[in-house]
Amino acid sequence: MIAIRPATAEDQRVIRDIILQSLLASYAHFLPASFIDKTIENDRAGEIARNDGIRFAIAEQEAVPAGVMLLKENYVDHLWTHPNFMGQGVGSALLDHAAQVAAKAGHDRLTLDCFEKNVTALAFYRARGFALEKTYEAKILPGENACFLVKDLRG
């Protein structure tokens, strides 16, 4: 069973580790090695955990942290699943949680961004009701496209 709980200040290392492991497993096959290396060198995962850690939701499977998500209003800013738990419903549970929180707050849609080359993630999001609203050049990686995806929460 997957349980979702709010992060605490003590979860910074867990959040950092899940982001980093997920990044390596999910992005290394389609993003330039220089981008991955720079992200690791600059400890971007640690920066995210330090700056926003207590705003994350943590998915646990049998009390083991398996995934993390940062929801800002109705925008899924970060969704990461540890590679050991990919394909086990962790990401789906976090997205379901995000949809419930956003709907309860009065939002009629859930949104997120995804690299266009991340075909696995795009298929995952589409299978969960997200539709492409627009494609644009990714700000964090010029020359790469990102997709803005939307899920209707009204019914």
UniProtKB/TrEMBL annotation:
<feature type="domain" description="N-acetyltransferase">
    <location>
        <begin position="2"/>
        <end position="154"/>
    </location>
</feature>
<dbReference type="InterPro" id="IPR016181">
    <property type="entry name" value="Acyl_CoA_acyltransferase"/>
</dbReference>
<protein>
    <recommendedName>
        <fullName>N-acetyltransferase domain-containing protein</fullName>
    </recommendedName>
</protein>
<keyword id="KW-0012">Acyltransferase</keyword>
<keyword id="KW-0808">Transferase</keyword>
<dbReference type="Pfam" id="PF00583">
    <property type="entry name" value="Acetyltransf_1"/>
</dbReference>
<dbReference type="InterPro" id="IPR000182">
    <property type="entry name" value="GNAT_dom"/>
</dbReference>
<dbReference type="InterPro" id="IPR050832">
    <property type="entry name" value="Bact_Acetyltransf"/>
</dbReference>
